[in-house]
Design a protein that fits this description.
The structure is a homodimer.
Chain A: E1 2-6, E2 10-16, E3 19-20, E4 24-26, H1 28-37, E5 42-50, H2 55-63, E6 66-67, E7 71-74, E8 81-86, E9 93-99, E10 119-122, H3 127-136, E11 143-147, H4 150-155, H5 157-164, E12 169-173, H6 174-181, H7 186-195, E13 200-204, E14 210-214, E15 217-221, H8 235-250, H9 255-272, H10 279-283, H11 286-300
Helix pairs in contact in A: 1-8, 3-5, 6-7, 8-9, 9-11
């Protein structure tokens, strides 16, 4: 199946306790696309960049067989730019700069031949943009996955709830799940969020892994304990890209297969954070990917005969 | 094998967002003993209480077939008392009262027929007391497990390091592992702590589960996502009691069996927090315990064919 990913393609400038970058390639759709491409999934990006966006980055995406015909280039505009600094625990960060630039007036246009994409991944963006994409699809996608954040809950909750009502899977972090549901217990939060529409609720807990809820069932995917995390940027998007890439490739949206999909997402995210920006994801080989899947298996498997 | 558990038997007064108790039965050795007893392990407690300690609580321990001959009763003294209040996230708490009372001059005396206990669980106590217990053993136990906390790192690190050098397994929480090792990465922290003596390092992350490190290997036991946590008191000790109770019963200290042991510990801890104090652990049935083990299996198992 074809995966369509909507989200930012951006410049990031990142500082962590381990280093600092100039403007480098970033953005939700970038990470989603690269992660999904590692699974051999046909993935296309809908996004917008400015005239300052370097051709080498578009080439990099194309070299990963990512469809970029849906990336609009506004020649007299500037690319979305985010700059942030991570604290020592890497779980919290301060935003230094957010320049929306071309994103401010982004009106996504889906090319005709992508309107029948079977899996739609809505990266974190204004809910109005996410809604517009859903409405442009010629057929209802077989699976719609939504990523969002507290910013939209605070600024445009009504519109966000409209989007949430239309999706099959929502990915959200733990504090956002609590905010959206008004429940402190994640089990209760996931139940309430399912009532808003999504059949599957994925709660991301960063270095503490991710929970997948569906009806009364729950699955937990750990995060891989790593010697070093250089830069957490893009971990959540790599997770989403790995997950949706796997689902599109395997064409199976049952709970059992979603479990596998979030393990795949966790594996790719665990590589992303090992270097700054997209570097580690770009250089990742099939063999390394499989070896990490094996590590995930080892991490939680035990003899059930207790 | 016989399990010998050293630790506090105490009164606790607890307040959480869900309620408040008067002085109730508490203490590390209490939870360790009760948890271990659920596995049918022969467990004996070394501790001290005051003349104010209610007979009904000693009866409760005996009814669970826990050996209490090693619990010294100081008739003119008062039982150790702790009072605390938990914040909404249940991960942090403020201590309101700590009255050491009879614990202040606690000089543990191990009854002769317990000096050959094969498994020794050193609950969180002054390292001098822990060391005294190790030295009183007539034969070196086949397995020594240590629980400790930052308080002893800050106040008597040298002595604590002497104890750490003598144990096989250390259980410690994530921030304490970071403090003890000077490493932020838990993978690096666990490596450094192994160099201090313990072959196995268990890092407890509360609601985020526990990591078991041994040489280059790592295993992760999740915490069970629960609808409601009423009182986290005793979770860590129930974990330690379940773990050592299982190890003593199964008489197998290999890495593969330690994995199972920390799943057992996690399962018992997940019950403890469902009610205040020891209530849930006391009423826990074998059938419920097995059902929770099944839930743990379901929580992380997936089809490895990805």
């Amino acid at each position: 199946m074809k995966l369509l990913a909507v989200g930012t393609v951006a410049y990031d400038a990142i500082e962590t306790p381990f280093g600092k970058t100039d403007k480098i390639l970033g953005g939700a759709a970038t990470y989603i696309g690269l992660a999904a491409s590692k699974l051999g999934t046909e993935v296309n990006i809908i996004s917008v960049v400015g005239g300052d966006f370097q051709q080498k980055y578009l080439d990099l995406l194309e070299n990963h067989k990512i469809g970029i015909q849906g990336i609009e280039k506004v020649e007299d505009g500037k690319t979305f730019f985010w700059s942030g600094i991570y604290h020592e625990d890497m779980n919290s960060r301060d935003t230094l700069v957010t320049e929306l630039n071309v994103l401010e007036s982004f009106n996504p246009v889906i090319p005709e031949d992508l309107k029948n994409s079977e899996v739609l991944m809505l990266g974190n963006l204004h809910p109005a943009v996410q809604l517009s994409v859903i409405e442009q699809m010629s057929e209802k996608p077989k699976l719609i996955v939504l990523d969002t954040m507290d910013f939209w809950m605070n600024s445009t909750l009504d519109l966000l709830l409209k989007v949430i009502a239309k999706v099959d899977v929502i990915t959200i972090n733990d504090s956002e799940a609590r905010q959206l549901s008004g429940e402190f217990s994640l089990v209760k939060a996931a139940k309430k969020i399912q009532q808003l529409g999504p059949k599957f609720v994925v709660i991301k807990k960063g270095e503490h892994g991710a929970l997948l809820f569906h009806k009364e069932q729950v699955f937990f995917a750990p995060a891989m304990p790593l010697e070093e995390i250089l830069d957490p940027t893009g971990a959540g998007d790599s997770f989403a890209g790995g997950m949706t890439g796997y689902l599109a490739k395997s064409e199976d949206f049952a709970f059992e297969n979603l479990k596998k999909a979030i393990i795949v997402g966790s594996a790719l995210a665990s590589y992303t954070v090992e270097k700054f920006g997209v570097e580690r994801l770009v250089e990742l080989t099939q063999q390394e990917f499989e070896s990490r899947l094996e590590s995930f298996k080892t991490l939680t498997s035990y003899d059930y005969n207790i």
